[in-house]
Amino acid sequence: MPYKLFQIQFTLDHHGREIKFPYKLDSDKLESYPKKVLEKQDELRKIELDDDQIIEQLYNKLTEQIGSDITLNSQEFILTEFTSIYHPIFEARAIDHKNKQAVIQFDGVSGKLL
């Protein structure tokens, strides 16, 4: 009996919530010297989950796609690529005399308000 392969791709934000990544990763959008840029960043937000938690989320999503109609005699879970993508988001903060704070966020690629 032939194997049925499932391919899945999903993106998490820095809180570990699944999001829809709105960009394709072509050479125009990739930084030429990413390590140099990331070394300079003071405000870099890394994901709050460790690798095992991310893999568990991926495994759960994959088993959801299989559904309850299929009975598995055996399974093999192969992770072919694990990539961190840093997407620039800029924030502007304003504080009034009563310490009331307002934050506005901009997408660093498109310039749109978030």
Helix content: 10-25%
| SS-derived structural category | alpha+beta
Total strand count, please?
Answer: 4
How confident is the prediction overall: mean pLDDT? 76
Number of helical runs? 2
Order of helices and strands: EEHHEE
Biggest beta sheet summary: 2 strands, antiparallel
Task: Determine the N-to-C terminus distance.
Answer: 49 Å
What gross morphology would you assign? elongated
Could you give the order of strands across the largest sheet?
1-2
Instruction: Report the radius of gyration as a whole number of Å.
Output: 19 Å
What fraction strand?
Answer: 15-25%
Low-confidence regions: none
Could you give the topology of this structure?
Layout: E1 11-12, E2 18-19, H1 34-40, H2 51-66, E3 89-95, E4 101-107
Antiparallel strand pairs: 1-2, 3-4
Describe the structure.
- It is a single chain.
- By secondary structure, the protein is α+β, with helices and mostly antiparallel strands.
- The chain has a domain at 11-86.
- The chain is built from two helices and four strands, in the order E-E-H-H-E-E.
- It has helices spanning 34-40, 51-66; strands spanning 11-12, 18-19, 89-95, 101-107.
- The termini are far apart.
Structural features:
2 helices; 114 residues; two-stranded antiparallel ribbon; alpha+beta
